[in-house]
Hints:
By secondary structure, chain B is mainly α. Helix content of chain B is 69%, strand content 3%.
Amino acid sequence: MRDPVITLRHLAHTYLADTPNAAPALVDANLTVQRGEIAALIGPSGAGKSTLVSFINGLLRPVERLRAVILGQDTADRSIDLSALRARVGLAMQYPHQQLFERFVGDDVAYGPRQLGLSREELRERVRWAMEEVGLEFEAFVDRQTFTLSGGEMRRAALAGVLALRPEILVLDEATAGLDQVGRRQVHDLVRRLRRDQSVTVVLVSNEMDEVAELADSVMVLDQGRTVASGPAREILTQAALLEPRGLALPEATEVAQRLEARGVAIATDLLTPREVEEALWQALPR
Amino acid sequence: MASTASLRNTSLGRYWPTGSGIHALDPRSKLLVVLFLTVAIVVAGRWWLTVGLLAALLLLFPLSRLPRAALSGALRPVLPVLMLLALFQLLFGLEPAGSPGAGVVLWTAGRFSLTLGRIVGVLVSLARLLSLVLLVSLLTATTSPSALVSGLEMLLRPLNHLRLPGHELALTGAIALRFLPILGEELESVQRAQLARDITGGPESRWQIARNARRTAALIVPLFADAFRRVDQLSTAMLARCYQGGYGRTYYRHLRLSAGDYIAFGFGFVTLIVALAI
Amino acid sequence: MGVCVAIIEVRGLHYRYGHGDEGIDALRGVDLTIERGDYMAIVGMNGSGKSTLARCMSGLLSPTEGEVLVNGRSTREHQALIGIRASVGMVFQNPENQFVTSLVEDEVAFGPENLGIAPGEIRARVVRSLAQVGLTGSEGRDPRTLSAGEKARLAIASVLAMEPACLILDEATAMLDPASRRDLLSLVSDLHAEGMTVVVVTHHMSEVIHAGRVVVMEAGRLVLQGTPAEVFRQADGLERVGLALPPAAAIAHGLAKKGVALSDGIVTPETLVDEVAALAGVGR
Lengths: 287, 278, 284
């Protein structure tokens, strides 16, 4: 059943419009994401990905109607109060230190849900749940001061603060950059868990092709403010001609499969992950 | 969001590169001339000297090919304050001896009497203050921030040999200048992050003082933390490149003085002597 | 040939941040030797102590216990520190927080200026360093206008201008997109080919494949050492310390475990493709 939670149609945006410093960030962006989907947004730096993301959580409003419809709300409609939307769309940004405002971790994670009118007990439970989901042990971290956290701990705290609002849509804007492999894997597991248990829709902005290959159901390629391609991950991530001129690359496992196919080995060219390639080769090689 | 964009594009102290002769002068001579003229403006005893200096400074604006916006941008912020000061001085100030019109009473109201001398005094004070404002604006309008810092650094070089922090001071200025736009961007990102988690409804209002105050306060912690982190990284990187202060340092950049510099320097020096002597 | 000159010798190195009960032992007894011409990669999870080790090796931190010798001089010797820091150049993660000036050429000149090099020689070094990193022609630009990849290269150039014997890159690729990361690593390989001793500190296993030697750290200690192939062979040991093999190596390892006749410790996609093609009996 199709249940689009994000519909962006021919979206355009210019910063500082009508001034001499006007800079077009988006020209013609299109994105449709179904509930429970993990959609990836890839593109060279400067393509406008962060701008696009700002339309998803209502930080920016389009001027024309029907350009950005999020969770059924047309964000161009000035009569709609978008702060309620922001409770349903969580945004985790690239630099965690920019997202921690409070002195203590517990307070910071509670920053969002505190505004929901929960009882003290409910609030505490919410904070505990969010922290455990990201792997920050509640008792150990709730009273830690935010500026004493390591980079990885900061990132988890910031993510907990976003999760604590129990958003229906979670946007990860390069939110795994700088994480080591363990941290990255934990975020991936979290994403899958949220999708499975709560039908959370995830928008993943990332240039780590291997990560996108692991997680994404669908992929949209943004270049200079324009959507140049979108479709199922298996379709988009396997086209070198689409990716390489834009400074992107095939996932390494896909590259291996395609090179082997070119050499004459009987293997499909639309494989994405090391596991898939390993399985395919196990079938294809003489025992 | 609009407020921080204007933080970055403010026209206060703004540099207007027009390529005039004044722009081409060595920053060192400009800094020294500004120093001389500042003293001259402050100590000038004769009203005609003060007015003359003001006129000369006003003339330098078009001479440097600066647009009208440069002049108005310099004056607009200070005019209200100056008017207030002038009013104050008119009501309560002293009459400078020897000024034209001293003792010529124009109007009385109770114990207060307005003399021509006082009016002249106020005008001269205004001229003095305006000259100072225009002088500094001229400097910033015709000299890029990095040139200013280089000039300052070179002037302070003799301090290095005495093991005083000349280079350190200038470098601090340069680094502060360089990080202002970076911190500005940081502020914008922090605001975005905060707005993303601010879900209390209601229309945006300038008058929600408590809420706006809380929002601003929330920005301070991450901004300071960020600034300290950057300072830490920067100082480590500087140590890694063997920075030890100014003593024993050599210099890659060499500014050369031209004829114009000597002329400007001479003019400033003469003006200073005249102001001190009279 | 003769004796290989050890540029950096680390002996029984301990480093502790802070004091008393709140102190953190970042390094707990590390022994390591870096020889002239080496290309070494130091890998480990965040918090394993790899950055601390890098800073001790370049004289930015003084050992709590043990010793670090650079060209025979100890980093505990205060007088030797300037020479050590000039000899072991360090490039950090965020180039924006390393730049001090607002012109590319001034930035490259900053290091030599600090060393009291004569202005004429500084000019020559600026030209040479910018050429080495491929930024010739950008002398007059403001570093802020450079792309992320160019900023990283400028940071390297400004260290090269001090003519170090060894270059340490502390997670210098962390802020880069994959294309710029590839370019930077390629530059590092070129510098190594020209004779520079290189140490790359990273948590990306895929950056390790060009190194001559790999050292794996966990909780302040070295737990694995060897060539990339040797280290990749020990995939389970890597898993234990939170590192994962890059995709090609993971595929090779998985197949080898199932009994496919692949050589031990395949590291690059190219090698994997060649061997599998050979096994499948197909042409080149």
